[in-house]
Amino acid sequence: MLDNISGNTGTRGAGLLILNNEICSILMDSKWAIIFLIMLIIADFWYGRRDSSIRYDIAKQQNDKRRMDLYKWRTSRAVRRTSNKFVDYVILISICYALGMSIFEPIGISHIFGGVLGSLIAFFCEIKSISGHFLFIKGVKLEKKTFMGFVKAFVVAFTKSKNEDIGNALEKGFEGIDNKI
Questions:
Q1: Please, are residues 137 and 47 in contact by the beta-carbon 8 Å criterion?
Q2: Rounded to 5, what percent of the chain is helix, strand, coil?
Q3: CA distance 115 to 121
Q4: Which of 81, 133, 139, 141 places its Cα 20 to 30 Å from the Cα of 24?
């Protein structure tokens, strides 16, 4: 009887019916976070497509067949990865809610904070990805892969988008500071 402990389709379906109320509650509690996450995922898709196109063109100019194949646009792969990313983030948020229910509720803190933590993790990952695409598209190279290196590169890219000369001066100033350290 305990040979097949994982169960069959009926057992999994019954488990889903039992947890259906909790899952719906989690999704309704996090609806605004999920809507914002969808917007971030669409922005990442948009900038990622442009990033891939630029990288493909660079590889084509260098006649690098391997990198051309790597950055060639494939709609099915892009849609699949984007969909998987959304599902992964919803699962992350749901797990954080469940952990909030099991850890935070017994000590008197609302389980919502578990979902908020999961949402913040998802937002951070997406914003970092969008920023990386944005910086590459704007031609900013991220020399130091630290938080401050990222902030400096982002400030330089933003300033260059407003005024090229001030952006270049700011970039040289940051380089001077980095050389003194």
A1: yes
A2: 85, 0, 15
A3: 10
A4: 81
Q: Any residues with CB less than 8 A from the CB of 113 and at least 6 apart, and which?
A: 100, 104
Walking along the chain (181 residues) 10 residues at a time, the average pLDDT comes out as: 56 69 79 92 92 87 84 85 90 88 86 89 92 83 67 79 81 69 52
pTM for this prediction: 0.70
- Are the C-beta atoms of residues 138 and 56 closer than 8 Å to each other? no
Residue 123: name the closest of 87, 93, 155 by CA.
Answer: 93
- Specify the amino acid at residue 18: I
What is the rounded CA–CA span in Å between residue 66 and residue 49? 18
Match 């976070």 to its residue by tokens. Answer: 33
Tokens representing 74 are 């494939």
Decide if 114 contacts 97 (C-beta within 8 A): yes
